[in-house]
Design a protein that fits this description.
single chain; alpha/beta; two-stranded antiparallel sheet; 7 helices; 9 strands; 35% helix
Length: 206
């Protein structure tokens, strides 16, 4: 219920008085698809705020699992809540960020600036005392990655915002989706177990 409420908040925030609000069809279109067992195409190129351009494979550490989120830096509410919640979950883990797993955020907005990406990476990294890589990519790359991951998003012209859910993906070192969480703050015990499963190359169950 809390997850749905927070998703609804994102859709309703800052709606102009003369605008038509989000429709039931829009809410329904934000349902996350179960993509466990699917492998992300890691040959796509992504950029950080420092001018570095690499394939997704090279941004990931091939010997560790990765926590992946899709957000955007102009998000007025849900992305920040998700990042804060995930950071708290990571701090509560027995495993250590940067040592046992990596953290990666890919923006769904291909127009992100270098300055915004750099500031976000620094801010988020401070919260978990480790690197938290924040990247942008072309629209084609964003569509390819989110499409395979079953992550829905849509630009809402009335609000000038993206409608999207909050999802944390747990990837194996080969980029296979092992598990995913739709809670703003995933349970630390479940997240710890999912990372262990992913580190062994396994696909998680419900």
């Amino acid at each position: 219920m809390i997850r749905l409420f927070l998703s609804a908040l994102l859709l309703l925030v800052a709606v102009p008085a003369n605008a038509v609000g989000p429709t039931p069809d829009l809410y329904k279109s934000m349902e996350v698809q179960d993509a466990r067992g699917k492998t992300l195409p890691r040959d796509h190129t992504l950029h950080d705020g420092q001018g570095n351009e690499r394939s997704l494979k090279d941004w990931m550490n091939n010997n560790k699992p990765t926590l992946l989120t899709f957000n955007y830096l102009g998000c007025p509410m849900l992305c920040g809540l998700q990042q804060e919640g995930l950071a708290q979950s990571i701090r509560d883990l027995k495993l250590r960020a940067g040592h046992d797993f990596e953290i990666l955020t890919i923006s769904i907005d291909p127009k992100e600036t270098d300055e915004a990406l750099t500031q976000a990476a620094e801010r988020l990294g401070t919260k978990v005392e480790s690197d938290w890589t924040v990247l942008r990519a072309s629209q084609d790359t964003v569509d390819a990655l989110t499409g395979l991951a079953g992550f829905p998003f849509k630009w809402v012209e009335e609000t000038k915002q993206f409608a999207h859910p909050a999802v944390t993906y747990v990837l194996t070192d080969e980029g296979t989706i092992s598990q995913y969480f739709t809670a703003v703050q995933p349970n630390s015990r479940d997240l710890n177990y999912a990372l262990i499963e992913a580190s062994n190359g396994n696909v998680g169950s419900l």
